[in-house]
Amino acid sequence: MTLPPWLADHAHARGIARFVDYTILRADATWADVARLCDEAVAAEVIAVCVNGAWVQRCAERLRGTPVRVAAVVGFPLGAGTSAAKAAESAIAAEEGAAELDMVISIGAAKAGEWQAVTDDVAAVVAAAPGALVKAILETALLSADEIAKACDASRLGGAAFVKTSTGFHPAGGATVEAVAAMRTAVGPRFGVKASGGVRTADAAVAMLAAGANRIGASSLAGFGGLVGPGAPPLHELLAARATA
């Protein structure tokens, strides 16, 4: 099976681990919890851990010498802080070792149709952390189809490298195949799309990849079965099996 363009650079990938941001964002998480996440991330060969800013430096130290990156959330989970505050948070996280930043856009500005404000907010974070890969969290369950498309455009114009469905914290819901497909249509075949929020099973993760995601956020790997780790089947086989199911 020929992989879709957003996955084409991973033709020889085994399983889905290299698309997974292994995530712990609970307010009550302790360092023991976060350290365990880091160790499990290395064992599973995921691409990144995603943590709150307080843990970035310790995660960077623990993961030094491994291929696992550190991603920090910014303006999380509401996106309602000032751009200056988000920029400062981003600069600190990058200085302490975050290679990636998952920022929540100004959702209120998006709902008001103030797209330049959304773009400027993303741009402030991008400028504050040169070299960091920025993912713009849209909270798609709160947006119409037209708003999703415009939020994708605003994020791209602001310099983000990815658009991301959800924080996973809003009661409106998390990632859906429909939202991921709409985001992929909006950004084109090569831009980053991350599905996050409620992706708990292997079937759901593969469905998100097939729909347009090239990154998955997950707070547990238990539901991914044999799709992470060195013994996982080739990615093209997983997608082919889904296509013929």
Question: Can you put this structure into words, describing what you see?
Answer:
- With 245 residues, the protein is an alpha/beta fold.
- It has one domain (16-230): Aldolase class I (TIM Barrel, Alpha-Beta Barrel), CATH 3.20.20.70.
- The protein has nine helices and eight strands.
- The protein has helices at residues 31-44, 56-63, 83-95, 107-111, 115-128, 145-157, 177-187, 202-211, 235-244, and strands at 20-24, 48-51, 69-74, 100-104, 133-137, 162-164, 192-196, 215-218.
- Strand 7, helix 8 and strand 8 form a beta-alpha-beta unit.
- The longest helix has 14 residues, at 31-44.
Key terms:
alpha/beta; eight-stranded parallel barrel; TIM Barrel; single chain; 245 residues; 9 helices; globular
Short summary:
With 245 residues, this protein is an alpha/beta fold.
Specify the structural class.
alpha/beta
What order do the SSEs take from the amino end to the carboxyl end, as H and E?
Answer: EHEHEHEHHEHEHEHEH
Name the helicity range: 40-55%
Largest sheet: 8 strands, parallel, barrel
Low-confidence stretches: none
Enumerate how many helices there are, as a single number: 9
Tell me the CATH superfamily: Aldolase class I
Q: Regarding CATH, which class?
A: Alpha Beta
Global mean pLDDT: 96
Rg measurement, Å = 17 Å
The overall number of domains is 1
CATH architecture call = Alpha-Beta Barrel
Global morphology: globular
- From the N-terminal CA to the C-terminal CA, the straight-line distance is 14 Å
